[in-house]
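User:
I would dearly like some help making sense of a protein record. Take your time, and here it is.
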Amino acid sequence: MRYGFVIPSGTVFDVVSLAQDAETAGWDGIFIPDCIYIDVELDPMAPSYDPWVALAAVASHTSRVRIGTMITPLSRRRPWKVARETTTLDHLSHGRLVLPVGLGALDDAGFGRVGEATDRKTRAELLDESLEILDRAWSGETFSFTGKHYAVRDLTFLPTPVQSPRIPVWVVAAWPRPASMRRALRWDGILPMKMGADGSQERMSPDDIRELRAYIAANRTATTPFDIIIEGTTPAADPDAAGAQIQLYAEAGATWWMEALWSKPNDPATVRERIRRGPPRSAS
């Protein structure tokens, strides 16, 4: 089990210093939001910073932790530009970048208020095409691509990323919806969301993770490593209880625990205190 921390907000200087604290405290990864505009009246996450610039600063001030976004909605980003940004960050961090991707949260006004696609089907199509273009761009080989939304002709992107065969891609997927699962299994990790019969989101239990792990083993054809990432909050003041909570997920097959204090978006002091207490390590 590895342990990541999602820094919810704070100034860009807070993000860098919190990442340094996380590395010192033994966390394995630091992740930051990729938001354009969250309405402060609806969600106190604002203000936000450009994730690529902020992660460049984090990469320059850390040496061990994995870094990445949580998450990048590729439907509103040009994939060839993301190819350049991620390759640059992968080099700057000496191969520590992870790219978690998904459809994106619609309460981010960086969709509807600026004319980006808001319907789920279109965003899913854009996500799939973007991932295909990214993978080909990272290869360093000349490629062309024609899809419903994007067309690329005779492009060669150099340099290639430090990591091989590519920068790891983690995909948000709705469990157990087949189309969503098929998308995730083509890549390098899954951030599963359990969907209820009424379409509401539910927390993934350890038993759900066991079922998911069995599904992955039965349906994924690639033999490369594949991560199962679970996000939540543990009781920092009770390390034994936190460890016991994580132990259940580790035994079920989860490979990353993401500690996320989304309820403390503008409270860097509380976030720093939690980071310094260290990861909620399981006994395994």
Residues 81 and 134 are 9 Å apart (CA to CA). The chain has one domain: 2-276. The longest helix spans residues 120-139. Helices lie at 12-25, 51-60, 79-92, 120-139, 178-185, 206-219, 239-252, 268-276.
